[in-house]
Design a protein that fits this description.
CATH superfamily of chain A: Winged helix-like DNA-binding domain superfamily/Winged helix DNA-binding domain
Helix content of chain A: 55-70%
Largest interface: A-B, 27 and 27 residues
Shape of chain A: globular
Oligomer: heterodimer
Shape of chain B: globular
Strand order of the largest sheet of chain B: 4-5-10-7-9-8
Strand order of the largest sheet of chain A: 1-3-2
CATH class of chain A: Mainly Alpha
Number of helices of chain A: 4
Number of strands of chain B: 23
Strand content of chain A: 5-15%
Structural class of chain A: alpha+beta
Largest sheet of chain A: 3 strands, antiparallel
Helix content of chain B: 40-55%
Radius of gyration of chain B: 37 Å
Distance between the termini of chain B: 52 Å
Number of helices of chain B: 26
Chain lengths: ~110, ~850
Amino acid sequence: MGDKSGDLVQGTLDMLILKTLALEPMHGYGIAVRLEQMSKGVFRLNAGSLFVAFQRLQRDGLIRSEWKATENSRRAKYYALTEQGRKRLNSETREWGRQVAAIARILEAS
Amino acid sequence: MEGELDEELHSFLEMAAEEKMKEGMSRKDALRAVRLERGNLEVTKEVVRSAGWESFVETCWRDLRFALRTLSKSPGFTGVVVLTLALGIGANTAIFTVVNGVILKPLPYPQPGRLVMLWERQLSGGTLGSVAPANFFDWREQSRSFEKMAAIDPYPDFILTGSGEPRRLVGAAVSSQFFSLLGVRMALGRDFWPEEDRPGYNQVVVLSNPTWSQYFGGSPDIAGKLIRLNNTEYTVVGVLPRDFSLVSRASDFESRNRFDVWTPLALPSPPEPWQRSAHALCVFARLESGASLRQAQADLNQVAANLQRLYPADDKERGITAVPLAQYVVANVRTALFTLMAAVGMVLLIACSNIANLLLTRGVTRQKEIALRIALGASRRRLAQQLLTEGIVLVLFGGLLGFSFARMGVPAILRYLPADLPRASEITVDGRVLTFTLLISLLTGILFGLVPLFQSQRVSAQDSLKQSGRGMAPGQSRLRGALIIGQVATALVLLTGAGLMTKSFWALLGVSPGFQTEHILTARLSLPPRYTNGYKYGMGRHREITAFQRELLERVRNIPSVRSAAFTAYLPLAGVDNSRSFDVEGRPAKPAGVYDVTKYRPVSPGYFETIGIPIERGRGFEAGDVEDRPLVVAVNESMARMFWGAQNPVGQRVRFDNGEWRTIVGVVGDVHYEGLAEKPGPEMYIPYGQVPNVEARPIIVARTLIEPTNLISALRKAVSEVDPSVPMDQIETMKQIVSTSVGQPRFRTAVLFVLAFLAVFVASIGLYGVMSYLISQRTREFGIRVAVGASTGALLRLVLGQAVKLVSIGISLGLVGAMVLAKSIASLLYGITPFDTATFASMSLLLALVAFAASYIPARRAASVDPMVALRYE
């Protein structure tokens, strides 16, 4: 299977989904395609991992969902960031930045 | 939810496929490619679904660990709560175990709902009575709504010989379908055959399991063996299962529902005429499947009408009543047991409100934690789930500990159970008890687990964060106040109930039984058949019996430290009784079916003097009152008053069943035969040598100078010297008999007393805690008041005023509840009215005093506060 989400650092999928949704509300497939595009094909996500993540984020109140028509007038569930989700994205982005910088420093030091 | 996920995934795949089709793939290839890339639809659904479930379990697990961590951080709080719960739940479980075994459990027979007991009923009085064998015979013939009907005669005794010293075995004679009616299968051998239930063919026995193992070594080939009972050979046909017990009211079976041997009743067909006037049987029946009790009763009414017409002399005034067995057996103990259950439930309620109070106090400190978490975005549902988990962890620990308390406590309760409690053998800690414990535990957990949340609902996150822990939510003190009022009210209900029971019990103990209870030893002797000439129901000779009695009494009186000794056939308060109809000489004959009835007591000369019944008029019985001398009787005061009024009955004559006239020679004092609470009725005493039918189980009564139990072996020796084949058992002092007779009121009084004490104790702890807390919240205020000149007394009044207000509301509500309780236990009270003003007043006062003490201590502390300390207090 073409699932490369296993390559994702644990816990980062949630952050990436939040980031994707920070621009505009999107449906599941849209999110998958956007992640692939932005990562230049590095992350190709299996539907299972994706939807489990959607449920988790929704339960924690970070995203909310709504059924809407797509541009091709198909019905799809659109996900959008909540206020909490936005805060979480900010804090996680900051944290991520700090961690990456720290890891980089460690790796370069040797 | 499921459908939504389906639809969402489906549209996901469609969109992905459309993308591929744009690149020129066929729809079929596109779908396959998508499946390869993104995973199979079904598998995906499964993954998503199970992830949802896993995360629920994970959340629960997280909450559980969090709860354990939080609780272990405050071991004092956790300990108090768990212990309080364990006591409350343990007490409830223990009492429930008793109620379950005695009342709630189905009877230990198949399809117990169809089992009924049938009784004769006096049409005028309505009291239920034992059944004449001939009536039973006709009922069985003529009724149509019963699958089976069987009778038991609980009186025959047997003397077992042939293996060591002679033993009395308690016997029962049953008609042929008795065991199959109850659905009992023999553990060994077989049930009686119908053809064995005939006179002359009934020398067969079924053994109880204990008898089989105790006297026959549990030998597996006992069936078919001959054993010697009353000097006759009987064939053992079967052995009852170990767990068989005949469910009954003890009083119906002479305080003994544990029969050792069973023989066929063997009624002649048709019965003899005299068998219509000797009322000695208990009748069991199994309703035809589908027949209702109402139908059965209508059927019986018809049978009764029939018999009234056919046998007016005996049955003119007699009806038949069917009572469901389960209901009949426990009718006398229901109220008492349910009262205890309610009482113990109230104790748990008080304990719960104490815990709720503790949680509230703790909640103030946790308020900030909760508010913080709400501010950080935790949903109220998540918080509720977590608090609930904490509550449930607490009660599960409490419940577990309580259950083990109950398991330890039940054997202790069993030891103190009244001897005549029906179905006591069925009281066990079983699955139903466990379920009950679990249920009340969870219920209490949910009840108080949500209190802190309830409280947090009232406070907005900001308010709580701004406050530095000093302030109190506005609704809080009101909630606490309500809890205190509830506790005080509930405690008063229990206290009043216990007060009434105790007072009633004292009144009962204060009843003078009419005889002496100190220094009296009693024992039952069983005379072998040669004394009675194989008598059965008919007339017999008493020469041998009186000779034996005379010789034994002589020996017993010669034992040093025996003051006097005598015989009687029935001891007072021992649950055994007999009555007869009689005529008074010179009075007009009664219409058919109407009789004067009196209790009937064969006694030997010297009985009144020995047991201490005063002779009011005339004389007692003398050595000369024997078979061939003029027939004499003595009557008690009630009988004298009832039948002769102001006239002196001495010299008047009475007779039984158109027999010879007997002259009244004395009037003796009334005795409480049936029970201390029962009014004495008319009684007639007859000298042993002159009784119209033979009594082969005399009870020897000895009055001693020393502790009566010290004389048991001397008594036994005297009996075996006169006749070694006479077994002696049921050795009791009169004090023991009196004590056993009040076993039920003593048990319920003691339990209620303990519960009331617990309730007051727990409630006063609660009051103390709440007062301390309320005062600590106002320490600054008090400091200011003192600083501006308030006196200690003024502060004390201020604080106590608050307590007095709560307590007096509680007491007023409690009085209302107490009246409801008093009304429902009215039937259990003796010698006082349920609304006994003195009890209500004194219990309210007692509770008020305890409550005052519980609030005075913290109030005193508050009033003596140092203003400087108080103002700095934070």
